[in-house]
Design brief:
By secondary structure, the chain is α/β, with parallel strands linked by helices. The protein has helices spanning 14-24, 31-37, 44-53, 66-73, 77-101, 134-145, 149-157, 162-167, 182-197, and strands at 2-8, 27-30, 107-111, 126-131, 171-174. It has a five-stranded parallel β-sheet, with helices on both faces.
Length: 198
């Protein structure tokens, strides 16, 4: 098994790279998806979040009101630490289950947005960073996600710098260009991963 940590700043195109790697046969363990699963209605994770933050973080249907919770935790580092203390162990446990269920010869790609920020590089055989110039990312966030330029810059500023991410990279996919240039580069990276596995 080859364990890959996949990361990239917001707007770099990490999700598209993840999709392309899955099409090659990689087993994708997506931290964002798991983070939603572990606080879904009826889970111990959601019960723990409500116990910590109160009923005000629930929607009328009993699901987590992410904007309401975000308003609490992003304004207060202590509250954010409390939330991470609940969610991160659950995400790690579920990620380990999914990895353990993969075939012995699998390429398992852990899609981890905050890999560099949280010092997680040593957990993987290789870190793959999807990179794009800051101005390219801002343009994508404004054009494709409807953010203002100020919102885009604030989101980027809350993450690791490009230099921090590149410092932990074993391989880099430059995604500053057009989307059609990405697939051939991912093909090359897949070949490289398979050769490392052998």
């Amino acid at each position: 098994m080859l364990k890959i940590g996949l990361t990239g700043g917001i707007g770099a195109g990490k999700s598209e790279v993840s999709r392309l790697l899955a099409a090659h046969g990689a087993v994708i363990v997506d931290s964002d998806v798991i983070a939603r699963e572990v606080v879904a209605p009826g889970t111990d994770g959601l019960r723990a979040v409500v116990a910590e933050f109160g009923e005000g973080v629930l929607r009328p249907d009993g699901s987590l009101d992410r904007p309401a919770l975000g308003a609490v935790v992003f304004a207060d580092p202590e509250r954010l630490r409390a939330l991470n203390g609940i969610v991160h162990p659950l995400v790690r446990a579920r990620s380990a289950e999914l990895e353990a269920a993969a075939a012995p010869d699998a390429v398992v790609v852990h899609d981890v947005p905050l890999l560099a920020e949280n010092g997680l590089a040593p957990l993987y055989d290789l870190v793959l960073v999807v990179d794009a110039e800051d101005e390219v990312r801002i343009d994508r966030l404004v054009r494709l996600r409807g953010m203002t330029e100020q919102e885009a810059r604030a989101r980027m500023a809350a993450q690791a710098t490009r230099a921090d991410r590149l410092a932990v990279a074993g391989l880099v996919i430059d995604n500053s260009g057009p989307l059609e240039a990405l697939a051939p580069r991912v093909d090359e990276v897949w070949d490289e991963l398979k050769s490392r596995q052998g």
